[in-house]
Amino acid sequence: MATVTPPPPSPASQPPSSREQPYVLGTGSDEAFRLGLQHRLWSNSAFDLWIRAGLQPGMRALDLGCGPGHASLDIAQIVGAQGRVVGVDESAAFLKQLGQESEARKLHNIDRVLGDAQKLDHCLPSPATDDYFDVAYTRWVFCFVASPDEVVKGIRRVLRPGGKLLVQDYFNYEFGITLAPRRECFSKAIKAVGQSWRSRGGNPDIMGELPRLLKRHGFEIEHMDVKQRIARPNTSMWHWPWTFFNSFLPKLVESGFLSQADCDGALKEMAEVVNDDGAFMLLPPVFELIAVKS
Ligand SMILES: C[S@@+](CC[C@H](N)C(=O)[O-])C[C@H]1O[C@@H](n2cnc3c(N)ncnc32)[C@H](O)[C@@H]1O
To answer: Alpha helix (H) ranges present in the chain?
Structure first.
């Protein structure tokens, strides 16, 4: 692999978000905690995808929309001291957390870059960074951006020819999540989640469009699959939807997407299910793909 200068770390003094419509789930400590739990519960499928794509020591990897960097930290261990990880996110708070954690773990091969995934040329601007990465990974980010086209263009610029883009994201989100047996307020709450993401330009169906979009930008799709799980009450997986709905539904009330009564009703329905051994929740299907830059 060619030796090139890595992109510079971001200045710590930037504002919390560089975009007009910041991340809909917020960047507070509740979301930071939720992202950590979510990573733990989904890390097996992330590792499987990285290994399938051939991620290995010495490689240069981009973690786009890295959040607090749970995946970046794992990737940094895989690529090792000879490799490099660049975590890009629009949240300075999340990047700060990644900095603290990489320091604590003595991982010195991670750069943090503050920027908008839709304007990668603004935050990874040096010509030296073109063709820089062997692998670009992005999980649960495409569903939140208004211009996936711009994200793909930006990734294509910084991937080397033959480099791989690895995506894990949603399709059929609003119909995929269901409480079994079905409950009325919970169903309304799911609808409101989808509406709020879409109102900011996001798309919880993005994985239905991404393969074609990638082909238009000169990528070959090497692999696609989907992982759908269920959560039974009182299991570790139950905490994934539990933390999500408990932190996000009140925000939907504040932003006017859900009535207080439906929010209370949905949380009550989830709480009632905890005492029902036969109940479960069908979780949103997480699609994955590997695309190769031709
Ligand atoms: C659901 S979190 C996923 C974080 C991380 N990829 C993971 O899997 O743990 C979405 C992340 O995307 C970031 N994000 C959303 N839109 C972005 C954009 N336009 N540019 C950069 N980051 C963005 C958010 O700040 C947040 O950290």
So the answer is: 29-53, 70-79, 92-104, 120-123, 148-158, 173-176, 184-199, 210-216, 239-254, 260-273
